[in-house]
Inverse folding.
């Protein structure tokens, strides 16, 4: 294998990378490879329009007409295609690439897919140790080459899911490239990856959907009162429930076993909470709430790892008013930790919630008031009570 | 009862309003009453500092030294004090106010409180029909008179909770005032109010806390990988779990019966979803997801009632950068429907999610790119997959 060395960082980059799929992930990766100094970056896509745009945007050194042509001289092939076509494209790529070429993918579920790819390679007389699964924690593959951004993976985590079959070379080559484009590499068994995704993405989705469904029933019965009572907590907690049902059917059923296990764990913990509340064991209830609060603050550290306050700015629902507030804060050197919009039910009167560090609370209020804005401070949780 | 008439809107305002409690709600209400043209607005608070600040800010026509003095000539007494002292203060106020004076409160739970106030009034030989419970859907009582804002209730919903005991005059007088300050008045039985609050505020809180707790366990076992996998969906769904545990213990146990009922309903629905997924009834799963999606869009109509897209702006985590983006959009006349901050796990690279109408998507991208910002579009749900 030829390889070029990035002298600044001392990371070993593969000499020739082929990217199959020119969407956001594939396009961004190709562009990032070029920027990082990979010897040659070749991109292909089955859609001629995508190939054309990728070429116009200079995402790769060369645009190839098909997979076989793209991978012919590759040291590393990245399959940035939809999950359901990964096994088939992996086979084509492995058959057309040099014998020692490494393969990886970017699909969001790893367990079944990895088994599938490995067994197909083996059945075709190809070496399954050349493949290692991957899952970048950034962006979305749905937005095409125009959205490609060479900095998309900078600072992002890219999970690799080696198995007992995976060769050391595969992990080394892929890790080397990923570090070279600024990503943080973490290794995880495929099944463990899927379990964790079930727990922190798929379960929250089901929890949110079920909440929205139950509240929706009450809303159908009680009308606009429910809409009036549903505040910021409801809005945040159920936000993902508004997503496309067919898309999520595919995601959830694609990870069925892990989602079921996560659901059972969640249901058991809910029962514990229910039982504590039912028997008046309020200390136990508070223990769970405190443990959850600590876990949430630990898992989403930014914006909650210090004393913060939400400054509520009454806003007209018109373009430009928002900018007045944020510009004033920016000019005063006040960092905005988080932002949310809150609209009145009838849409007539909105508010902007600006989260700032507790230490600059008074300055933030002053700066915003000086712009003629009506402001007050809201403490977390209090607005829900 | 003396009454002044607002000729513009034809709403009957009580002539003299006494507000007990000078926090955000009491202070804002007093200021709103003055603005609406109430004959005389008297404010009191047990804290001399609060009385002094309320006086300095001109929140009321007159600041009284105690409850008895404040309510002596009142047509309407608003008890804007913490829930646990409402019954006691209601008794003092009813005993000191003119016989025909109406009383209302602003506590966030109504069922037990209303029974308590009515029975105490009755036991003291005072007329319980003079009291009607209330719950404004705005702000928080925790921020003191400095946060008071006369426009806080404009367009906000104010729920009144009359019982079989409540007199027509009480509902009429309070409604007249609330409409006069621009609030929308909705009536609801106290128990129904508490049930709905349990469903759209307390249950979401427990659901979020339990999610964070279960994920926190996995995080303790799997370390930073979980942090890396937890994306925007997790962040939104568990946001309220970071709240103060002791505060929420009080809220949840204060509404125990309704919270238990809501939890049971939620658990049953989760079981249905679980069972559908377990037996491979994916159509049933999709039905629930679709119904939830529709309910969520209906209940939080703004920002999802039309085709919207999230534009992702890569941001430095420094003051001012945010303003560049929002100012550019404002100057281009592009309305921001929603805003969120997304931080990389290591806090080094953040992104701003700007939700705009689908129709202005290309213009928003253009405007932001022209500012030298790296932007792409993210479709809802896709980033989670």
């Amino acid at each position: 294998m030829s390889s070029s060395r990035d002298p600044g960082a001392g990371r070993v980059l593969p000499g020739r990378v082929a990217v199959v799929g020119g969407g956001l992930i594939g396009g961004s990766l190709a562009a990032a490879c070029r920027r990082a100094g990979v010897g040659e970056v070749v991109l292909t896509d089955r859609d001629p329009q995508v190939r054309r745009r990728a070429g116009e945007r200079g995402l790769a050194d060369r645009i190839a007409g098909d997979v076989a042509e793209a991978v012919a001289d590759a040291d590393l092939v990245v399959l940035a295609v939809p999950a359901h076509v990964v096994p088939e494209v992996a086979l084509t790529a492995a058959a057309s690439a040099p014998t020692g070429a490494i393969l990886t993918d970017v699909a969001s579920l790893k367990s079944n897919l990895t088994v599938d790819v490995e067994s197909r390679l083996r059945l075709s007389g190809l070496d399954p140790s050349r493949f290692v699964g991957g899952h970048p924690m950034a962006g979305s593959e749905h937005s095409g080459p125009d959205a490609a951004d060479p900095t998309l993976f900078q600072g992002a985590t890219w999970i690799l899911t080696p198995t007992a079959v995976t060769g050391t070379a595969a992990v080394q080559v892929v890790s080397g490239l990923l570090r070279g484009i600024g990503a943080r590499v973490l290794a995880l068994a495929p099944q463990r990856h899927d379990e964790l995704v079930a727990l922190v993405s798929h379960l929250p989705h089901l929890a949110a959907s079920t909440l929205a469904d139950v509240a929706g029933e009450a809303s159908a019965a009680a009308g606009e009162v429910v809409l009036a009572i549903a505040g910021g907590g409801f809005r945040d907690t159920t936000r993902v429930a508004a997503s496309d049902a067919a898309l999520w059917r595919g995601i959830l059923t694609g990870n069925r076993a892990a989602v079921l296990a996560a659901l059972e764990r969640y249901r058991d913990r809910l029962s514990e909470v229910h039982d504590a509340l039912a028997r008046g064991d309020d200390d136990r209830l508070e223990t769970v709430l405190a443990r959850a609060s600590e876990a949430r603050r630990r898992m989403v550290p930014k914006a909650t790892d210090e004393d913060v306050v939400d400054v509520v700015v009454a806003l007209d629902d018109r373009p430009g008013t928002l900018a007045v507030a944020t510009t004033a804060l920016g000019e005063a050197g006040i960092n905005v930790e988080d932002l949310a919009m809150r609209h009145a039910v009838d849409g007539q009167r909105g508010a902007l919630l600006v989260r700032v560090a507790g230490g600059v609370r008074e300055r933030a209020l002053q700066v915003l008031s000086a712009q003629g804005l009506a402001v007050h401070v809201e403490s977390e949780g209090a607005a829900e009570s």
